[in-house]
Amino acid sequence: MSIEIKIVIIGDFCVGKSAFLKRILTGDYEKRYIPTIGAEVYKISFWTNRGNIDFCVWVMAGQDKLSFLSEKYYAGAQGGMIMFDVTSKMTYKDVDKWYRDLIRVCENIPIVLIGNKVDVKDRKVDTEMISCHRRYNMQYFEVSVKYKFQIEKPFLWVCRKILGDPFLSFISQVDGNDFGVQRCFGGIRDMNFFNFQNGIDREQEIMKR
Ligand SMILES: Nc1nc2c(ncn2[C@@H]2O[C@H](COP(=O)(O)OP(=O)(O)OP(=O)(O)O)[C@@H](O)[C@H]2O)c(=O)[nH]1
Ligand SMILES: [Mg+2]
How many angstroms is it from 14 CA to the middle of ligand 2? Predict the structure, then answer.
């Protein structure tokens, strides 16, 4: 059995969305901040106790002003992840804005709220301050992409929700990494990684492939 699930990952700039995906896909940690332009699309395949599950993950640019494009990017998403940075109050405040933007297009999808960078000692958003996930019925996870802390949890939760199977689990593979992520997609440097630099024309061209 093989299933493909489209996920969108949104949130303010520099919260760690691209680093999160690269960490899961390749195991590498990206120290540099290289702003995403438009969106990046990653294909990730997980081995699970229910067979192979392929994710098509759309990571949006946090500082993209081309909001008319976001509808196109969100279209057909079956799950969402909203990331903020626990060292920046502004990124937590903006969760509201991202949530509303997403449900405008995808009304009833499971959404995970991710608080990243919990490794930083001087955090500005404490766990007790985080409540908006209850209001919006989101699942909340604290993660550290840097230290690989809980980074597979958002995917596992979304997978379980979409497939309606609370017992679904990831299975480690000899040639994969800790979470059963297969390396068969070849990482972000090959054709499964697109950067939509030129907006919609480029997007349509890619979609035809
Ligand atoms: N301390 C710490 N830094 C992190 C962590 N995750 C990511 N970073 C750093 O945060 C910076 C921003 O990461 P990106 O993944 O490029 O941010 P982004 O959310 O994709 O930003 P945009 O593409 O502009 O929307 C990088 O310098 C990362 O190394 C983490 O868990 N802990
Ligand atoms: Mg990025």
Answer: 7
